[in-house]
Amino acid sequence: MTGLARLSGKSFLVIGRAGMDLYADPPGARVEEATAFTTALGGSSANIAAGLCRLGCKASLVTRVSDDAIGRYCLNQLDAYGIDRTHVHLEGGEARNSLAVVETRLEDTQSVIYRNGAADFEMTLADVEAVDYSAYSALVTTGTVLAAEPSRSACFRAVDLARAAGLPLIFDVDYRPYSWASASEAEEVYSRAAALCDIIIGNDVEFGFMAGGIEKGLDKARSLISEGAQIVVYKMGEKGAITITAEGEMQTGIYDTKALKPTGAGDSFMAGFLATLAAGSDARTAVQTGSAAAAIVVSRVGCAPAMPTPEELARFMAAATP
């Protein structure tokens, strides 16, 4: 495993999808009753990259997008957020970009994801081997990258190349059952990926999934530290998070907020957490900042456009207590 001092360079290489989100409008409307939809950049990896850029870091995305109007929309959005897309490639043929139709509401929220023939799953070994890993401070990947080939093999190859270049490896478990051929395959692949990484972030359900039962999830998170990980964050929703390091464990709470929706919390947490670590803060401060970022994003429409600036985060944290 790699030490985390290199994070101070604040330049993140993020692997995974960029997509289009369609939000039922006005806020509170159900999809089947909406009279209009608003668009936003989507995809967990693109959202994380947008959040990092909003917080003063640099982020470069590695993925594929469809060679059509939706793919071009994603490219334009990446440019708008300042995300480097040197390693974002076009995929032609019948490949289609990820599309999410979602609601800005708390009760019985619906999220309909279109992932058939997903362009991002076509990421190749050549795509990741073309990257100069020495130019970055860390590699970030999300679990959805691993759900299909050739993206899975490409991601593991990127992990090997990043490790050889001395980059810290960061894994957002991000389990989406609809992307996988079977639960057993996902369990095996996620466990393999987590064992390779320096920072692993997931919720209690995701760690429980990797362990073969939710009651075993916390033990699974602890075992990753004994295997060499530097930081493991075990998120528990409204109960906060348990952060595990070689020095011990600490529990932190969440921030009160007037939420509009449940979506976007994980991506914003990751961005706030990593940006804070990169600024030299300790793990507790990073988790608290990530939690504050999540609280802000769930109180706004969208995910990428809802990501806070450093000034917004500072004001929010000064006025609230986790």
The CATH superfamily is Ribokinase
Kindly, what is the distance between the CA atoms of the first and last residues, rounded to a whole number of angstroms? 31 Å
Q: Percent of residues in beta strands?
A: 15-25%
SSE order, one letter for each helix or strand:
EEEHEHEEEHEHEHEHHEEEHHH
Look at the helices and sheets and give the structural class: alpha/beta
Q: How many discrete structural domains?
A: 1
Shape: globular
CATH architecture: 3-Layer(aba) Sandwich
Description:
With 322 residues, this protein is an alpha/beta fold. It has one domain: UDP-N-acetylmuramoyl-L-alanine:D-glutamate ligase, CATH 3.40.1190. 35% of the residues lie in helices and 23% in strands. It is built from ten helices and 13 strands. The strands form two sheets. A nine-stranded mixed beta sheet has the order 5-4-1-8-9-10-11-12-13, sandwiched between helices. Strands 3-2-6-7 form a four-stranded mixed beta sheet. Helix 1 crosses helix 8, helix 6 crosses helix 7 and helix 8 packs antiparallel against helix 9. The longest helix is centred in the last third of the chain and has 15 residues. The protein starts with 10 loop residues before the first strand and ends with a helix.
List the topology elements:
Layout: E1 11-15, E2 19-25, E3 36-42, H1 44-54, E4 58-66, H2 69-81, E5 84-91, E6 99-102, E7 111-114, H3 125-129, E8 138-142, H4 151-164, E9 169-172, H5 183-196, E10 199-203, H6 204-211, H7 217-226, E11 231-235, E12 241-245, E13 248-252, H8 265-278, H9 283-297, H10 310-319
Parallel strand pairs: 1-4, 1-8, 2-6, 4-5, 8-9, 9-10, 10-11
Antiparallel strand pairs: 2-3, 6-7, 11-12, 12-13
Helix pairs in contact: 1-8, 6-7, 8-9
